[in-house]
Structures are given as structure tokens and as C-alpha cells.
Amino acid sequence: MRPRLxxxxxxxxxxxxxxxxAALLAPAACTLPAEAPRTPNASAGSTSPPPVTAMVNQFRxxxxxxxxxxxxxxxxxxxxxxxxASITTPLFAAGIAWRASPDGTQIPPGQAKSLPAQLxxxxxxxGTGTTGPMAxxxxxxxxxxxxxxxxxxxxTPNGAQESLPATDPxxxxxxxxxxxCLARDAGAVANIALEPELTVPGxxxxxVLRLSIxxxxxxxxxxxxxxxxxxxxxxxxxxxTPLLAEDPARPxxxxxxxxxxxxxxxxxxxxxxxxxxxxxxxxxKVGTVIPLRVAVGARTGILKVAADRDLRGxxxxxxxxxxxxxxxxxx
Length: 331
Description:
Layout: E1 4-5, E2 11-13, E3 29-31, E4 52-57, E5 67-74, E6 80-88, E7 96-97, E8 105-107, E9 112-118, E10 150-156, E11 161-167, H1 172-189, E12 190-194, E13 207-215, E14 232-238, E15 244-246, E16 256-259, E17 265-273, H2 279-282, E18 289-296, E19 299-306, H3 309-329
Parallel strand pairs: 4-11
Antiparallel strand pairs: 1-9, 2-3, 4-5, 5-9, 6-7, 6-8, 6-10, 10-11, 12-13, 13-17, 14-16, 14-18, 15-17, 18-19
């Protein structure tokens, strides 16, 4: 994937209450800096920053793909070329690496670039993604050890490989770890997915999605993070998305309990457009990812259930048509 220059138009993913799954989707929006940090004025008594600094981020359009950004800022007076970059963190089992082109990528003086990196499997031991006083969440990015991350880079002109401390101001690594671990534990209880059909009855201003819940025959072993209550999942509530809202005539379920080994079920979700401004569909990134706020074992969070490509297209067509019809019928 190609690296991206930071611009004022890019938006950052902010910390969300995530499950890792507890809002199957509800990432908070953040803003990227409009420009790279400037070298402090030496006359003011401050020291110059390192030649290259590193930060972890995530763009909204990569949120559902589990791709994060290694953002490198060139604080020096010379262009540097990045030939390799990877993140090391105790939250993930293996290094999270940017796939470099043979020629690398150049960062001009005073600029920053975002290097996309695919997340690896999360470490889901005790202390990550669990409830409790040190659980990651809004205002609490996790323990100090969990927040430690470093970026290993190989740069030219000097060609040396070095390790840089990496900041994670939006809790991207903790959030993604939490989501992955919650999804793993929930998946041990039941497979939850959206069925491919979308029913649009009546006046075409409402529709029905179907949530399929198929319990598994067994639960997550205790040595893999399971434990008391791990064989039971509760969907505490279902949240709307930037594109879809609950149809008041067909309320969504609350506190729906799912037991491993229990019967399969299909839940009908009545939906309507959440907004009808011109940008609703055109700029949609996560509007067809349904957030389920769930509790399973010791974990709580947002479990994200995404529509597949065909269903996503049907949902976008429905929202477009329903908004157009609503506009025509409005006085």
C-alpha cells in the first residue's frame, strides 16, 4: 500500500469504546495535525527534536481493514528515504510492518508521511481488554506497559537501522487489541454475522436487516483466555451507525443472551436512514458496520459486524432511495 502525506483533510481515528467490540463500531473522530512539528526556537532554551519522530495512528477508511499507520516526521533539514518500518509492542504477537517498495519512500524536510501497516494477531492475556480499574477505555489507554511501542526504521542517507520511541496519542494499539480479543472471545461462543438479504417493504423508507447468531458447540479454553462466564455472551444493545438508525416501529433487542451450544437464531433489525445530507453515502466509511455492545466472560466492548460487499451496496442504494423519497414527500 502506498504511504500517504498528512494533509489537513485527513481524519484520525480517535479512541473509541471498543471492544474491542462494544460498539461494533463507534470510533471517535480525531484530527491530524495540519503540518509537521516545527523545530523549537533554540533561543527559547528548548532543545531540537530528533531528526525523525514516530507516531501511531489509524485512518477511518482503514478502520475495518485492521490497518494502522506508522507516521514518521522528518524534523531535519535533509530529505530522508525510508526503506523499512515496523512497530514492536507487547499488545501484538509479532511485529507490525509496513510493506516497503524497492526504492522506499522519501520524506522531505519538515514533512510527515503515513506508512500503512497490517495488524498482526493480538496478545490477549490477562490485563488487556478486560474489565477492571486498568482496563483500556475512554480516558484510560491501559497500563504504562501496554502503551509502550517502538518503531524500527531503516533510513538513508546513512542507511542505519534504528529504534525510535513511538507515541500513540489516540490509543490505537490498545483499542485494536481490545477489539480483537473481544471478537475472539465472542467468536468462541457464537458466530454472529449479517445475512446477505435486505428487505425493503412498504413505502421504501424503512428496511430490515437480519442478524444471524449461530452458537458454537464449545467455548474458549481457559488457558487461552476463557474462564468463568466465557460460554455466555450478552448483546447488551445494538448501536446505530453514521448511516443507519433504528426504525422506531421495529425496536432493536436489548440484553439478548446467547449460550454456547444453544439454538441458532435470526434477529430482524428494522432500519432507516440516520441522515440524508448529500455526503451521507458519498463519504461513508463505517456506515454499514453494525456495532454490538457485548459482554462475554470478563470482557465488555463493541463487537463490529460488517456487511459484505454486496449487502453494503444494497444498503447504500436503500439509503439513497429512501432519502430521495423522504425529500419528495416532505412539505
